Amino acid sequence: MQAKLVLISRSPIPPRATWPQWLAENDSDNPTSQKIREVQQLEDLGAEVLICCADVTDYQGMERAIAQAHTQFGGIHGVIHGAGVAGGGLIQLKTRAIATEHMACKLQGTLILDALLQDCELDFVVLFSTLNTVQPAVGQVDYCAANAFLDAFAWAQTAKRNSLTISINWDGWQKVGLAAAAARDPRLANNYRNFDDFLSPAEGVEAFARILHQPFPQVLVSTTDLQVKLQETRSEFDNHPPDHTPTPTKASLTTAASTPTTTIHSRPNLSIPYIAPRNHDEQTVVEIWQNILGIEPIGINDSFLELGGDSLIATQIVTRLREVMASHLSVASLFETPTIAMLVASVKESRQPKSPTPDSQSNEREEIEL
Ligand SMILES: NC(=O)c1ccc[n+]([C@@H]2O[C@H](COP(=O)([O-])OP(=O)(O)OC[C@H]3O[C@@H](n4cnc5c(N)ncnc54)[C@H](OP(=O)(O)O)[C@@H]3O)[C@@H](O)[C@H]2O)c1
To answer: Would you tell me which of 172, 248, 269, 349 could form a disulfide with 179, CB atoms 3.0–4.6 Å apart?
Structure first.
């Protein structure tokens, strides 16, 4: 392999002259030691490697790195944009700042690379996206959005420049990278039950080589039948509450919803005045909300979101409503009809018998707010 490679990341790596000493003094699983050994392996195979420390969202830093690459190698002929950070967290709890930070290296980073390399005659630009843009994952709204940007960018570039820009929607990888690290985390292991189906590094390398020889701007890489996978994901969302913690069982949810919250807070200052329940149904729902949200009193026009409700709390409330009021409400209904008065009206409506039609049966899937 005679490749000339420029490897850019934010983490600094010690100067080459100190590598033997570093490797001798640090464990073999030290991340920096691993990077050094991987670079050495590439060089043993005949590659020339330039290591640069830069943040892809920092225009000046990237400008310096690219200038260094030009000086050392004379030109740049291809780009693999693999910078990414794991997002994570329910959308209701995510602030704009958190989402922006998670998305920056794919959004800003791609635009900065595009701006800095526009005068280079590139043979290829490869953007590392994820299968999650078509196979949604709970709590990954910013990660999915950032990768969806890569997909759209590849299509737009192909249309605009007729150059080879490819977004690869990778399935999860075994052994290396973000997913492998997350799967080792016991708190996240529940999201990686299909880890054995992930791509082996050898499969990933083979897929990459094949993708470079095809003309499409977007390629989805799935280790198993994608249609089956999408159907499985849909039924997973139908049957399980959206949370990053291990999925609670029905029994644990019931217990959580039935057990009074020990700390009760007084009603916060809300945008609308307090209105007491007017009938038995409203009183029942008020008690369920107070119990689960730990706030008292709650008025019938108080907004679920203003009271701090999120998807997990909504799941508990809906589970309890199903038990106590035999309702068929979805988790989404807490967000669509976010007050007790509206919810009771929905419960009454949901109790009305409906004549089953083929269409209504096929629409029975519950929507879960992410
Ligand atoms: N692993 C998977 O299963 C999988 C699946 C689908 C898609 N992908 C995508 O594939 C790409 C590579 O993922 P990976 O799993 O190999 O992750 P990884 O091992 O964490 O590699 C990501 C690299 O991006 C660098 N980076 C992050 N933010 C950066 C920034 N602002 N500027 C410059 N470098 C930055 C990181 O280094 P520093 O932190 O030192 O900057 C790291 O070297 C990601 O875009 C990911 O979304 C991965």
So the answer is: 172
